[in-house]
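Residues pack. Consider this:
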Amino acid sequence: MQQRDSDATAPPGIGVGMVGYAFMGAAHSQGWRNVSRVFDLPLRPVLAAIAGRDAGAVRDAARRHGWAAAETDWRALIARDDVQLVDICTPGDSHAEIAIAALEAGKHVLCEKPLANSVAEAEAMATAAEAARARGQVAMVGFNYRRVPALSYARRLIAEGRLGALRHVRVSYLQDWLVDPDFPLTWRLEREHAGSGALGDLGAHIVDLAQYLAGEPVTGVSAQTETFVRERPRLTTAAAGLAAPSGQGAAVVPRGPVTVDDAVVFTGRLASGALAAFEASRMASGRKNQLRLEINGERGSLAFDLERLNELSFHDHGEPAATAGFRRILVTEADHPYLEAWWPPGHTLGYEHTFTHQARDLVVAIGTGTDPAPSFADGLRVQRVLAAVEESARKNAVYTPVQEVPAEVR
């Protein structure tokens, strides 16, 4: 791995302020800490401040993750002169307010997915980002799976025409952390905070990946959703959302309604006419974080499994039938995406590296004055698909067109 020395030739710093400090906050922090030690960058991220409502918890997060200061009000973080980039890692119900305020204050913005809890909020964010773009600011959505080298390489192969015209896209994202009916009612299970359940949490990722890899939008869907456990114990202590807090369930506690979906399945059509199938669940027992996809084209196919994230399966349909089939590509070569800065061939990367790559791409965009991807317009495009899925499910799987993103925010 290339190591960067701190000397007189070091690039100028850019102060990063992060709102939120739980699971995603920890992952983003690692990306910000490591990125300038791995990649040559036009700017050097400086971990200026982190914000959270619990003073003790946010101070502890600042100490553990290397942030220079802690704030208990995100508005104070945005107002800091040493913060030029605001990273939003909060529940979805606060994304729009924080992002728009940061953009209006002249800051660059990175916002976790899904972009918002509603199309209206996402539209407002995309409009604010477009206005900020004219002032030289950038805004990006944190769809980190785009930064898995194997998936970035898959996008390159598809764009080069190695699969020809696409026919089928299949993507599933399965977890099992909600199988226990006594798992508590965290914010991820409440619509007012999370927007939706497996649909927004996992479905947003696979919709973005399908559109990113195919290079074209989903134009319509037919969907079904289900909430299998409709009431859960109310929290008696704080929890981050993916794990039950210690001691929860030891005593009888009141139960409250689950107001989001546990699972969703939907079919769709891409702009080219290709067919797509999607499945997302947080009730798939035995599946901890399994994301699988396969894309079939007229000239070949690609397949990927996040549990083997350094590998890509490729089939060239032009090869002789006697020897044709899927072959394994180990995506660790220096000319594969992002790999020029890491280890010798064959030395694999992990989940956490996607956040380093995300930080790299955003800092390069800021430093070079280019547009980062995925943009807030891309996030809005995903939000419109999620909205169409929910509308279709309400109408018992009636095929529902996805509204196009307005030209003024593309």
